[in-house]
Amino acid sequence: GEQVEQLPSILRVQEGSSASINCSYEDSASNYFPWYKQEPGENPKLIIDIRSNMERKQIQELIVLLDKKAKRFSLHITDTQPGDSAMYFCAASTGNYKYVFGAGTRLKVIA
Amino acid sequence: AQTIHQWPVAEIKAVGSPLSLGCTIKGKSSPNLYWYWQATGGTLQQLFYSITVGQVESVVQLNLSASRPKDDQFILSTEKLLLSHSGFYLCAWSLRTGGYEQYFGPGTRLTVL
Questions:
Q1: CA angle centred on A77, ends B87 and A103, rounded to 5°
Q2: Radius of gyration over alpha carbons of chain A, in Å?
Q3: A&B contacts, CB < 8 Å
Q4: CA quadruple A107, A50, A55, A72: dihedral sign
């Protein structure tokens, strides 16, 4: 079945700089790639997603890139703030009601 | 607006005891429903999904079962808890048609002793 690798597992950045998280998947049939932000003790919140008919999507300071040939997608957070500190998960789905999540990235924004 | 409610909020149970966790979604007609498990500090593992009442598909075997007795209700259960069942259980929903986006409920924290 599908497997999703997510790196890095821990990311520390200075406030105001950019943070990048990378994910790769195995199943070329995957066509939906969401990103979730999870604060300690809370449920994951969908922050941005991209479908396979797109290569780039931006919502405010969040940018997602998708490279279908390389089977990679990435999240870029520009101008990071302390409130961006959290756990981030990528996921992939082939649209068959099954979703596979990456291991997660703990982002720490240092003031 | 849709609301998703999970019960109980937290549970402490003994090994070998039964378990029943519930999830209700209001404000959406015939949603797709999902159960996930998350170990402390770990990733999200999909357990089950359901696209209609009475129909549940298993994604991974963890000695758990699920049922969908009503359109807006999803139940996760087991007759005998294991220590490895401890963790955070999350219910999620997506739209019936074109529904790729998943939205998670508040979760139930389960501790098995």
A1: 30
A2: 13
A3: 48
A4: positive
Q: Do A104 and B49 touch (CB under 8 A)?
A: no
Q: Cβ B104–A43 below 8 Å, yes or no?
A: yes
CA distance A81 to chain B (A): 23
Cα radius of gyration (chain B): 13
Tell me how many degrees the CA angle A100-B25-B5 measures, rounded to the nearest 5. Answer: 90
- Contacting residues of A for B32, CB less than 8 Å apart: 97
A33–chain B Cβ distance below 8 A for any pair: no
Alpha carbons B30 and B33: distance in angstroms, whole number: 9
Q: Sign of the CA dihedral A21, A51, A24, A100?
A: positive
- Give B7-38 pLDDT, tens digit per residue: 999 999 999 999 999 999 998 889 999 999 99
Q: In chain A, what's the furthest Cα-to-Cα distance?
A: 42
Q: Which residues of chain B have pLDDT under 50?
A: none
